[in-house]
Amino acid sequence: MQKKLTITLSEEVYAWLHGIIGRGNISQFIESLVWPHVTDEDIEAAYQRMAQDEDREAEAIEWIEGTLGEIADETR
């Protein structure tokens, strides 16, 4: 069961999340960041399970490669 939560973010943070993570993926992204802080689950075991999820790993690699391309295009 899912619950709806309203949070407030700066426009800059929201724009980054929307642009990088994608509108339909923001909740899942935030939940993945929060989860280790609200559970007693062994974090190492959880990471091992996540690494065995081939679809999740492929999505992570795709995201990383896309992000690296954007970083390479940034001016300093």
Order of helices and strands: HHHH
Percent helix, as a range, is: over 70%
Q: CA-to-CA gap between the ends?
A: 44 Å
How many runs of DSSP E, i.e. beta strands?
A: 0
Q: C-alpha Rg, in Å?
A: 15 Å
Describe this structure in words.
This protein is an all-alpha fold. The chain folds into two domains: 10-39; 43-76. It is 71% helix and 0% strand. The chain has four helices and no strands. The chain has helices spanning 11-21, 26-38, 43-52, 54-73. The termini are far apart. The model has no long low-confidence stretch (mean pLDDT 82).
Task: Produce the secondary structure layout.
Elements: H1 11-21, H2 26-38, H3 43-52, H4 54-73
Task: Summarize this structure briefly.
With 76 residues, the protein is mostly helical.
Characteristics:
mainly alpha, 4 helices, 76 residues, 2 domains
